[in-house]
Amino acid sequence: MVDKDGVRKSGGYLINAMPDASNEDISKLEKAIFEAGAISKMLNENLTLKEIAIKVTGDKNVKVIQDDIEPVYKCNCSKQKMEEGLITIGKEELQKIIKEDGKAELVCHFCNKKYDFSKEELEELLKKIEK
Ligand SMILES: [Zn+2]
Questions:
Q1: Who's near 44: CB < 8 A, 6+ residues apart?
Q2: Cα of 66 to ligand 1 centre, how many Å?
Q3: CATH 3.40.30.10 applies to domain 79-130
Q4: Measured between alpha carbons, how far is 37 from 55 in angstroms, rounded to an integer?
Q5: How far, in Å, CA of 123 to CA of 48, rounded?
Q6: Distance 88 CA to ligand 1 centre (A)
Q7: What is the Å distance from ligand 1's center to 12 Cα?
Q8: pLDDT per residue over 49-99, tens digit each?
Q9: Cα 3 to chain centroid, rounded
Q10: 115 Cα to the center of ligand 1, angstroms
Q11: Is the whole-model pTM more than 0.90?
C-alpha cells in the first residue's frame, strides 16, 4: 500500500497445502483468500498476524506454533556450492569455458553475489570430473 510518503504497508503470506488436502479444502482456502482481500489493507487496519491467518485460511482455530522467528534476508550460497554447480555442467562444457573464456563468473540467482573462478580453479574442477 503506497501513499504520497512512499510505502505505507506491505506484506505477504505463503499457504502450503498438505498432501492430504482435498479439492474442497483448497476451494475453501481460495474463497477465504479472495474474501480476505489485500494483505496491505489488513496490515493497515492493524490486524495481528494471527487475525490475518484466520482471515486468509477461513479457520478460526489457527494455532501459532512459534512466534519468535526473526526473518532475515540471508543466502546460503558459497563458492563450494558454485563449484558443485560448475561440475554438473559436465566435462565438455567446462573445457569449452576454459578454452574460450579462460575464467568464469557465476552469479547466485537468489542474492546476486558474484563468484569468480580463475583458469587454474576451473582446471582443478576439470580434474575432479575426470577422476
Ligand atoms: Zn546467494
A1: 1, 8, 9
A2: 27
A3: no
A4: 9
A5: 55
A6: 18
A7: 22
A8: 999 999 999 999 999 999 898 878 889 999 999 999 999 998 999 999 999
A9: 28
A10: 10
A11: no
Q: Cα(40) to centroid of ligand 1, in Å?
A: 28
The domain spans of the chain are 2-57, 79-130
Average pLDDT over residues 38-58: 94
- Distance from residue 112's CA to the centre of ligand 1 (Å): 6
Residue 81 CA to ligand 1 centre (angstroms)? 10
DSSP string covering 32-90: HHHHH--HHHHHHTT--HHHHHHHHHT-TT---S-------------HHHHHHHHHHT-
| Grid cell locating 90 | 559436465
Tens digit of pLDDT for each residue in 5-37? 999 999 999 999 899 999 999 999 999 999 999
In angstroms, the CA 97 to CA 93 distance is 6
Q: How many residues does the chain have?
A: 131
65 CA distance to ligand 1 centroid (A)?
29
